[in-house]
């Protein structure tokens, strides 16, 4: 029975991942940012008060896990605050960078130092195609500095972690799970793009991601992928050309 830790699992993609891993017979640990997490079941252990934007989140999580070895760790926690050139937000940007690019370092480090990740373990950082500098295109314009740049920083964090953990045999992947119909995208007004942008449900994105993780190993450590391919990446063909593969390795 594989053991899976999902950091950020009370809604959206994280909740769908937890549900689907359980259906496949995995033992699942799922974190929430606040004290208000679902009640644990025989299949899922919910861990409250793990806010990746807080410095002590990694140590708190490792302490809670005790000596439980982990086969897969998926960091899905995220925050999206919209901005424009005329109305940037210092507070939102700090929160986005902290959540996406600083917190994961401390989470993964704490788990490694506690001996919970072993040779053969996998760490997956859920990023976004918006973190690809290459895929940014004039047709999409600027703005949303904190979101896009924090995801680019998260991609770099994933690459650096892959180098630090290579000798330990821990594979690190960075993924764009797909454009999803979630409360997060709706909350920033992106629901108006759901239909034209090919947005999928969290359940659909989770299914594709789990299949991808199943085959992901040290051969691919440090790489950046879109498990669902180019279908929801609006600039993919303009930048990368036609006849693109699924899954699709993304450019930085």
TrEMBL record:
Pfam families listed in its UniProt record: adh_short (PF00106)
PANTHER family xrefs: OXIDOREDUCTASE, SHORT CHAIN DEHYDROGENASE_REDUCTASE FAMILY SUPERFAMILY (AFU_ORTHOLOGUE AFUA_3G13450), SHORT-CHAIN DEHYDROGENASE/REDUCTASE SDR
Membrane spanning residue stretches: none
Name of this protein: Oxidoreductase
Tree of life domain: Eukaryota
């Amino acid at each position: 029975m594989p053991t899976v830790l999902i950091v950020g699992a009370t809604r959206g993609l994280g909740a769908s991942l937890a549900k689907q891993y359980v259906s496949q017979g995995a033992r699942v640990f799922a974190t929430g940012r606040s004290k208000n997490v679902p009640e644990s079941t025989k299949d899922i252990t919910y861990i409250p008060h793990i806010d990746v934007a807080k410095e002590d989140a990694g140590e708190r999580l490792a302490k809670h896990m005790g000596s439980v070895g982990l086969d897969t760790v998926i960091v899905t926690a995220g925050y999206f605050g919209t901005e424009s050139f005329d109305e940037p937000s210092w507070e939102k940007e700090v929160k986005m960078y902290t959540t996406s690019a600083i917190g994961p370092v401390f989470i993964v480090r704490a788990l490694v130092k506690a001996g919970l990740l072993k040779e053969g373990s996998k760490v997956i950082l859920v990023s976004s195609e918006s973190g690809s500098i290459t895929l940014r295109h004039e047709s999409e314009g600027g703005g949303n500095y904190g979101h896009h740049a924090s995801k680019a920083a998260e991609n770099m964090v994933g690459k650096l972690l892959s180098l630090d953990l290579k000798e330990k045999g821990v594979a690190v992947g960075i993924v764009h799970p797909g454009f999803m119909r979630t409360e997060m995208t709706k909350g920033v007004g992106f629901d108006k793009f759901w239909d034209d942008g090919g947005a999928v449900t969290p359940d659909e994105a989770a299914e594709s991601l789990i299949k991808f993780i199943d085959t992901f190993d040290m051969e691919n450590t440090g790489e950046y992928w879109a498990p669902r391919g180019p279908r929801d990446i609006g600039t993919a063909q303009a930048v990368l050309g036609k006849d693109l593969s699924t899954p699709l390795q993304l450019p930085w």
